[in-house]
Amino acid sequence: MLQTKDLTKKYFTKTVLNGIDIQLEEGKIYGLLGPNASGKTTFMKIAAGLAQPTSGEISVSGNKIGVSTKQIVSYMPTTNHLPLWMKVSQCLNWFQGAFSNFQSEQAKALLNEMGIKEEEKIGSFSSGMLGRFKLLLTISRNAKLYLLDEPLNGLDPVSREKIVQAILSTAGEHNTFLISSHLINELENVFEEIIFLDQGKVVLSGNAEEFRVKKGISIDGLYREVYRNA
Amino acid sequence: MEFDARVPIYLQIIDKIQRDIILGRLKEGEKLPSVRLMALDLKVNVNTVQRVYQELEREGVIITQRGIGSFITEDEEIIKKIRQQMADELLKNFLEGMKGLGMSFADIVKCLKDYISEEEKKDAANKRPD
Predict the structure, then answer these.
(1) Which stretches of A78-187 are assigned E, i.e. beta strand?
(2) Which of A56, A135, B82, B116 is least enclosed, having the fewest CB within 10 Å?
(3) CB atoms inside a 10 Å sphere around CB A225
(4) Is any Cβ of chain B less than 8 angstroms from the Cβ of A8?
(5) ipTM above 0.90, yes or no
(6) Helix (H, G, I), strand (E, B), or coil: what is residue A72?
(7) Residues A80, A92 contacting (CB under 8 angstroms)
(8) Which residues of chain B make contact with A168, given a CB cutoff of 8 A?
């Protein structure tokens, strides 16, 4: 459902993505793994239509990145993208106006599960609560492709668990998740397929269970093996 | 459930379900949760649980009825077979470990007999009222 061919991104003389060839299939959860500055965030921004590739091709559901793909791609940046002065209720209204596929009812049900109240202000959130709220907004859009950039980074264990649960209950036959992370921990059993990036290149990819079968190694262990010299 | 991240997750779940059947925690004919519910409960990928159900179905351990759900088999032969398989697995590991200590089969049999009779004595001593 997402396909890239020789996707390259350069910032001036620095090559951030160096000829990426990836195919993502519908109904799967992919882990996009790699150390900082391996190109994960740049890849996601290009797929979300927020950055332009320097060369190469990328398409989602057969369409070039643009207005039509933005409708079906829901992206969660790793930094905060929400105005701090806004209340939760205002933010939900904003998203409902901005995205035709935003499901308010589902978002409200998720607020409850996440322990967030509508009258709370975004600026008053702890990092754990902000992480939960950002995820809730992202998965409340009825999208075909969810791009989550470091969804567990810097969060407390309870928030991490709630986020993993929410991801698993949203993932289905007809959507695809691409989740970036430089820590594996709670996502070890969530990823079906793994893509390892290093210095803008895919250095290894495959099915998580097959790696365990063939190598008798955890994804975390594999990560350490792949980036031993990074 | 705690997983060993080095071992395929689907094999660990199969093992857990088979153990639950042998120990009677899952009864013959009992309905299993849906694939999605079990995935959420175990916090693993839905397709991992899908694979578990497919493998168990192929072995005849569970029977899936379209639109109704998956049920534990009521065939006692299959349950016996699972128990035998799990016992064989333990025995295999045991024998490998003992052979690794340089013991012959005869040594191993003697060792095991001695050990069992010691255990029996301990059990008897524990049961005897003072």
Answers:
(1) 145-149, 176-181
(2) B116
(3) 12
(4) no
(5) no
(6) helix
(7) no
(8) 39-40, 43-46
